[in-house]
Predict the structure of Putative nuclease HARBI1.
Amino acid sequence: MLETTRRPDRHRYRVNPFELSDEDFRYKYRFSKRFGEKIVGIVREDLVHDPRGCPLSPEIQVVCALRNWARHEIQDDTANLHSVSQPVVSRTCKKVAEILSRNSREFIKMPTTLNEQQETIRKFRSIANFPTVIGAIDCTHIRVKKVNADGGQLYINRKGFSSINVQVVCDADLKIMDIVTRWRGSVHDSRIFRECRLKQRFEAGAFSGILLGDSGYPCTPYLFTPLLNPTTPQEERYNRSHIRTRNTVERCFGLWKQRFRCLLRGMFGDIETAKKQLLHVLYYTIWPST
């Protein structure tokens, strides 16, 4: 008879990461403890877990996802740090991303009241004296793994790698106010804006200001682009003011990708999960200075 050796039980000892000092917490998770507590408070009610065995607390689930996204490390390393298995980290990241994507509209939104719009316009004007600007718009490519299904070639962008083309509108404080994450890498920036709901809201007169975009967008009454061949001093001043003001969205992309290294180096899960995880910019939009 064949005898099998039973693997000895391993006792995992989990500690509450929020018992760390502020300095150690920031070193491990790249955000302050206060910021992590804010995220836990948002998703706690939705992180329903199985009471059998040794369920993960909402605190550990959040920090697992946060560390995996912010540091973009191997999931095995995140699992070992928190005394869980790699499949648990994978499922936790997906679950937290889904919850954040459902709650994203509470934090990622355009200014609606007249006072909010006027305050946004005032902040943009203080940059380079460009009047009535309510947002800066642009797109950025987030690398994803090669898609082998039908239509996978449509994810290949002009630079030759598979990506999702993400449209973002931010304010003068680099806070993201609108985001579209569903388009494949081969789609042009102007088409994404042409078919998004934000364009319909501008055409319906929902906002008192305008957007600033680069030359890849068409120039419209609510979306101003730079002049391609300025010939007068007035046109040159317009371009300089436009570039300095619109530069906020470029800085927003840089800060966003540095804080979440998975966006800088690429997201290698399945496409639908990657699109949901892109909405974890919710972390960044709650407290941009964190």
Notes: The mean pLDDT is 84. Residues 233-259 form the longest helix (27 residues).
